[in-house]
Amino acid sequence: MAVAKELAETIIDPKAYSLRDPVDAAFRTIRAQTPLDVATLDDVEPFWVVSRHADIKEIERQPDIFHNGDKSTFLTNMEGNEKVKMLTGGEPNLIRSLVSVDGLEHKNLRGIVFPHVTPRAIRPLEDRIREIARDFVDHMLTFDGECDFAQDVAFLYPLRVIMTVLGVPQEDEAFMLKLTQELFNNADPELNRARAELTPEEALKSLWETTMELENYFAAVTKKFRDNPTDQVNSLIANAKIDGEYLNHRQMMGYYIIAATAGHDTTSNTAAGAMWAMAERPGMLEAMQANPDLINAFVEESIRWEVPVKHFMRSAVSDTEIAGQKIRAGDWLMLSYQSGNRDEAVWDDPFDFRIDRGSSNPQIAFGYGVHVCLGQHLARMEMRILWEELFKRLKSVEMNGQGERTISNFVCGPKHVPVRFTVQ
Which residue of 121, 182, 233, 294 sits 20 to 30 Å from the alpha carbon of 214, by its own alpha carbon? Predict the structure, then answer.
């Protein structure tokens, strides 16, 4: 068997992810009928659809067999692949970041920042993050009982936190938010660079322009922090050396860009999705106010529920077997975190948002294994502190209209969460 063509078309459709239900329904069928099988479409290289939680983890724990960087790390068509290689001098990814390198290079690059983002290392940041959270709660409450939580809080609070950690001036935050949204929401006319529907060729041109704008910005950052080093993350990147040499241009730019974009966008999506879920469920706010220990479970469930990164691609470098299926060297695989986080074999009622799952929720939205998200502990801390501060102030909250998600099959989350609230 193979993955049915109509299901394969749904799970790569950016508009289907903005609606979410069609994608969840498609993956539900795939998990039941062809949980690990090949999708064949007209203009895309055939790829394995990895839909189950266990299979995703099994692949992620074998990074020597399943590489990130040999092919594109996110789903793209064959024409786009060739054009990317032309732009990069033969590399399959526009940006050479932590998520698109393997082996020793990945280990060395990850080691630059990893010691600074462990739970122990980030603990001293808690007071500063709490100050930022209180500022944004105060900001929300100025809206007199109605706001768009995504636009007014969720997009801005994690942005302020990560820019503080990186060492980016506050006056540059709007610029960073704009370029982040252009990078991850290229299929969304409301957020992409052209503010219009784009052909695949136009979309790639737009992504390249955004990437070049980010590189120009970070070239000045490099000079600044080499002249005056600090303990901020951008300074660590600027001054990092491997075997006595500074990072090369693509390594350095990829590091800056992933830290400055994924470092807040995924947390923004998750926080916005958490508010949306809570605002639709009477009694959930009161339950957490009565028992603040539930906030950690709320955070983990919101990560599982929103799954901001929908997929990453891997490519096999040798013949192997997963769940009885023979994978050949050169095969391309889509690890669907969206599907893995809805796996009925792992969760009861996976299509409901529940805070009784506990804080040991086995969600895999951060990935797994050596490529697990570098900023996961900071993201959890940011969200926990935001809810601790906000729940002290809110009396009630409910949706105030229809929410909307971004149009993207790669990084996708709420872009509008209109809520009505009262305060204590």
Answer: 121
